[in-house]
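User: Predict the structure for this protein chain, please.
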Amino acid sequence: MAISDLAGSSLAASSLVGSSPKFQAVLDEINMVAPVDSAVLVRGETGTGKEVVAQAIHDASPRRRNPFVAVNCAAIPATLIESELFGHERGAFTGALTPRMGRFQLADRGTLFLDEIGDLPLELQPKLLRALQEQRFERLGGNQTVQVNVRVIAATNQDLWGMVQERRFRADLYYRLNVFPITLPPLRERTADIPLLAAHFVRKFGQRLGKPVHHIPDEVMEALTSHDWPGNIRELQNFIERAVIMTTGTVLRPRLAELTPQPAATTGRTLADAERAHIVETLRETNGVVGGKRGAAARLGLPRTSLIARMQRLGLMSHSERPVDHGRTNVALPENAMGAFASAAGAGGF
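Assistant: Here is the predicted structure, written as structure tokens:
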């Protein structure tokens, strides 16, 4: 298949490529929220392109001529992240020999992208919340207020609502960040986009590496679309880069053995699948009772609220179906939720 034959929808000046309905829905949400200053929470598995989406929102916004500043909350030690975000004054800590601006101030009039927001230390979350609400803060070791005008986009691959239920993330900060949520589908749910993405990466790395690769064989494309890509777009990108490096002519020649499926016993079974199956089985044993000494939560060694949060995250129970406690410890699930458990398990969905 010639690379030039593959042309799909993409947002201008970004690496968002695809034409599937789920991709188009994401593009629609980006175009909807980009012109306004509301906070955005981008959710999705690792490798689905959360930073690319954040950059696309910035590039399509009135702030596009101003800075886009990204910070990975999981990559900075907890002892340094306050200084990274808000800056510090001279003498604020050992080694602070000069004043330093933080990422908030560097992003003034632009966009601040907070990646892996679920890893932000709990003790720092109130200061971040104040900065978001009031657009002002004090540097570490200082008492002078710094005023900024920053749009914040956050991203996570974690279940923030579940973390709120387990008191590992502040509810007020969650609601402040989750004004406009965008959920990115995993690559296995948008396989129609794989040919377009593959062609995009072949062009990209061909130009970068000086390789005139113009054709992807049909058997290669079939192997690409058949693979489930647990690492999502990042994994596909890395695979294509290796393939371009190894190609000596104009036809892409990857090592397809790298895409060989694992034995059937493990294929397609993720940690979430295993967790879902275990919860379903436990709920069957307790006749759908969540709380109490003999309920599913006790058997699983979890607080009742934590189990409910996990059930919602795993799609076993919608937020509207969440039981109302009224102080009771023994909570029965609605019949429609139990029916969903039984039908999904019986169909091999878990």
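The two ends are 37 Å apart (CA to CA).
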